[in-house]
Write a structure and sequence with these properties.
By secondary structure, the chain is an all-alpha fold. It has two domains: 85 residues, Orthogonal Bundle (Arc Repressor Mutant, subunit A), CATH 1.10.10; 158 residues, GntR ligand-binding domain-like (Four Helix Bundle (Hemerythrin (Met), subunit A)), CATH 1.20.120.530. The chain has 15 helices and two strands. Strands 1-2 form a two-stranded antiparallel sheet. A hairpin with a 3-residue loop joins strand 1 and strand 2. The longest helix has 28 residues. The chain is elongated, with a radius of gyration of 22 Å. The C terminus is likely disordered.
Length: 270
């Protein structure tokens, strides 16, 4: 990511007027993307409301509404008497920031690939642990709900976004069977992805036919009632699936400690 000066004047130079349609959305999106892409860095102080509204070509009420959204996302902090400062999104934002940051970057950017790998890792950890808990805590009604949603997925094969929404609905059934409200709240961060990041969703769900049998397998794993076995099986299965997806799209899965291992091997050869 590019480094940027913390000088408010430099920030003004990077921002131009926005279109009049959905002005609050346009302003918040513009500033959000600049922050997440690193062009306005954490710790930078934003220009005054007057300067910023003139640079963006909007009135101050619109700007305040947009800034309120950014503050709710954890991207900026407004302190009385000292103005508005850009916050570190890694320290303040929630899981939804993964999608937002990815949307602000080019797909060829190494940071985009790194965030995608993080997204896939979060998914397999969440689902694997949820299935393990569901195996230990499910009811007959939970199994019936999973079967119903899974059965509806066949009709959605031609629609990537519809299939993704159905997949999220299936995951919610699993999380409810796991009896963990915290997991459900985490899923809410991903629930908006089909509407907000349709291109990313179409990439992630590019082989929908191949995933259909997976629903029945998960249901049987849960029905079997072995939490530890479910955890190990799902982690292994998702790891293989994610690795295959990354390879299919021209990305290699990074192995932890690869750089350190190379350095050690070089040192031994001297």
């Amino acid at each position: 990511m590019k480094k940027s000066s913390s000088n408010p004047t430099d920030t003004l130079a990077a921002i131009g007027p926005v279109a009049r349609s959905s002005v609050v959305d346009a302003v918040s999106d513009r500033l959000r993307n600049e922050i997440l892409a690193g062009r306005i860095t954490a710790g930078s102080r934003l220009p005054s409301e007057r300067e910023l509204s003139l640079a963006l070509g909007v009135n101050r009420l619109t700007l305040r509404a947009a800034l309120a959204r950014l503050e709710a996302m954890g991207l900026i902090v407004t302190r009385h008497g000292s103005g508005t400062e850009v916050a570190s999104w890694r320290e303040n934002a929630g899981l939804e920031a993964l999608g937002m940051v990815m949307a602000s970057l080019d797909r060829g950017d190494p940071a985009w690939i790194e965030l995608l790998a993080s997204l896939l890792e979060v998914r397999r950890i969440l689902v694997s642990e949820a299935v393990a808990l569901a195996a230990e805590r499910h009811t007959a009604e939970d199994i019936a709900a999973m079967q119903r949603v899974a059965g509806e997925q066949t009709a959605r094969l031609g629609d990537a976004l519809g299939f993704a929404r159905g997949d999220l609905a299936f995951q919610r059934c699993v999380l409810r069977a796991a009896k963990n409200v915290g997991f459900e709240l985490m899923l809410n961060s991903f629930q908006r992805f089909p509407d907000e990041y349709p291109q990313l969703i179409e990439m992630l769900y590019d082989k929908r036919e191949d995933s259909l049998p997976f629903y029945g397998i998960v249901i049987e794993i849960i029905r079997h009632g072995d939490g530890d076995g479910a955890r190990k099986t799902l982690r292994t299965a998702f790891d293989a699936m994610d690795e295959e997806w990354l390879a299919r799209h021209g990305h290699k899965k990074k192995s932890p400690g690869t750089k350190g291992d190379k350095k050690k091997s070089k040192g031994k050869g001297r």
